[in-house]
């Protein structure tokens, strides 16, 4: 029995891999188990929203991801209605067009820097937890069973999560009412056209149509992503193969010149089922990503929601395993992320209604399209889809514009909290007892004159006050970073008071 793992993560998708990177950065002994023996190369998602780009940039991981991207799209959409991202308060006012498989590839390769293994071909089949940890049973590629003991188990194993099922966690919501399919297809170039490598990415046309949705997105090399949803996709078992006839019928509905199908590389079915785990944590077992919530892929929010779950959870799990977490810190994962997930489920349900060829739905769609021509309305909906308007409830001055909100443009490569304050201020001196858990950068965004900001490792402002309010800062530091200790200072680099031992 292996007893050297602090956190075992089930699932090597973007959520599980980002969480593993966060834990590895903090020096946590983690491991990822994945039932598939190797990457499939398939990509359900094709985009990173602005907030997810900020998350990766925060750690210095965005640039290599951008090197793998296909396009930047300076807009989002709500049921196909355009959203202008240029008005967002972000360094990245665009979607990054990138297949999910390329994001996974980078995140898994990067784990080698921390020595965090991804154990493929191992299926988690059961577990039991006690006061001190979780004992899991894994089925290996040779059919042999083994047990692994960890302090915590995180289920990031998708919408049909084994971890959630074994945990017995209620998963309320509703079953799918609309059937759709997705396929990566090889197409013959139309006469006089290229293979699609240079075609610009466009927003999907999701206007209600009795014939159904059919949208084509170029991936290059003659390969396109086809989204299809019409009468022939309704009432079909989710595991039934997507047929060539279905694909050809959808291609005939796509705008533009006729397209000839050469091959289907990969295809699957999905629905607008909408469910959310009653709780994201039960004892030492936690849920993240699709294991915690499923919804229609409207607006391109799914991958991003899961990765942001991981970013919220990672530093908190690290604090617990390193022994400095204050009481209740891990409980804030559910408290903060469950409402965010609920809001995504609500807006995706609304978007699906707006694509139905029902006269009343069409009327609502036309009204919303008119409202979204107003810049402020467009900006608010865009920020919701982009994930940049998330504001977690924080103790303190609720009217401060940054409290609970993200601090855009702040680099946090070490995974520590950050104090933005004048070096000679009273709060800078008061923070000395938390050296090793927070840093004060020599360079970076500053608070207004006379103000100070405390930023959590996930980039959200957890205290804002005057730079002479040492008592207020100490209270916030204790609340989020535990009891103080004698500072350990290591010189050098762009930050001071960095000691990764916590």
UniProtKB/TrEMBL annotation:
<protein>
    <submittedName>
        <fullName>FAD-dependent oxidoreductase</fullName>
    </submittedName>
</protein>
<dbReference type="InterPro" id="IPR036188">
    <property type="entry name" value="FAD/NAD-bd_sf"/>
</dbReference>
<dbReference type="Pfam" id="PF01494">
    <property type="entry name" value="FAD_binding_3"/>
</dbReference>
<dbReference type="InterPro" id="IPR050641">
    <property type="entry name" value="RIFMO-like"/>
</dbReference>
<keyword id="KW-0285">Flavoprotein</keyword>
<dbReference type="InterPro" id="IPR002938">
    <property type="entry name" value="FAD-bd"/>
</dbReference>
<feature type="domain" description="FAD-binding">
    <location>
        <begin position="5"/>
        <end position="347"/>
    </location>
</feature>
<keyword id="KW-0274">FAD</keyword>
<dbReference type="Pfam" id="PF21274">
    <property type="entry name" value="Rng_hyd_C"/>
</dbReference>
């Amino acid at each position: 029995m292996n007893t050297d793992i602090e956190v075992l993560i089930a699932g090597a998708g973007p959520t599980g891999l980002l969480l593993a990177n966060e834990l590895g950065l903090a020096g946590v002994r983690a491991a990822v188990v994945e039932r598939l023996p190797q990457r499939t190369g398939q990509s359900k998602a094709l985009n990173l929203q602005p907030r997810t780009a900020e998350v990766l940039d925060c750690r210095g991981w965005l640039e290599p991801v951008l090197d793998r991207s296909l396009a930047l799209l300076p807009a989002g959409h709500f049921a196909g209605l355009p959203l202008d991202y240029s008005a967002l308060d972000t360094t990245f006012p665009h979607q990054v067009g990138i297949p999910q498989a390329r994001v996974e590839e980078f995140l898994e390769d990067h784990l080698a820097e921390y020595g965090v293994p991804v154990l493929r071909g191992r299926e988690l089949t059961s577990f039991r937890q006690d006061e001190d940890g979780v004992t899991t049973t894994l089925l290996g590629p040779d059919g042999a069973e083994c047990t692994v003991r960890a302090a915590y188990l995180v289920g990031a194993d998708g919408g049909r999560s084994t971890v959630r099922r074994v945990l017995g966690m209620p998963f309320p919501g509703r079953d799918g009412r609309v059937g759709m399919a997705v396929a990566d297809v090889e197409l013959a170039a139309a006469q006089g056209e290229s293979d699609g490598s240079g075609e610009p990415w466009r927003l999907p046309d999701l206007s209600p149509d009795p014939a159904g949705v059919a949208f084509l997105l170029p991936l290059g090399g003659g390969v396109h992503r086809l989204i299809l949803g019409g009468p022939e996709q309704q009432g079909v078992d989710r595991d039934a193969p997507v047929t060539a006839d279905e694909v050809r019928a959808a291609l005939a509905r796509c705008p533009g010149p006729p397209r000839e199908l050469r091959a289907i590389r990969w295809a699957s079915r999905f629905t607008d089922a909408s469910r959310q785990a009653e709780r994201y944590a039960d004892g030492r077992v936690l849920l993240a990503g699709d294991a915690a919530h499923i919804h229609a892929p409207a607006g391109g929010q799914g991958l991003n929601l899961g990765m942001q779950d991981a970013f919220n959870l990672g530093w908190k799990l690290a604090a617990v395993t390193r022994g400095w977490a204050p009481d209740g810190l891990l409980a804030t994962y559910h408290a903060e992320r469950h409402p965010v997930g609920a809001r995504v489920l609500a807006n995706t349900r609304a978007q699906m209604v707006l694509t139905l060829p029902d006269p009343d739905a069409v009327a609502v769609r036309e009204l919303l399209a008119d409202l979204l021509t107003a810049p402020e309305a467009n900006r608010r909906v865009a920020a919701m889809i982009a994930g940049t308007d998330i504001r977690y409830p924080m103790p303190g001055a609720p009217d401060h514009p940054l409290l609970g909100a993200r601090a855009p443009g702040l680099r946090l490569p070490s995974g520590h909290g950050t104090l933005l304050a004048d070096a000679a201020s009273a709060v800078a001196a008061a923070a000395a007892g938390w050296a090793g858990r927070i840093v004060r950068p020599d360079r970076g965004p500053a608070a207004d004159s006379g103000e100070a900001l405390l930023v959590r490792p996930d980039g959200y402002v957890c205290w804002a006050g005057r730079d002479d309010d040492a008592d207020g800062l100490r209270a916030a530091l204790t609340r989020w970073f535990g009891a103080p200790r004698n500072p350990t200072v290591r010189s050098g680099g762009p930050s001071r008071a960095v000691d990764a031992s916590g």
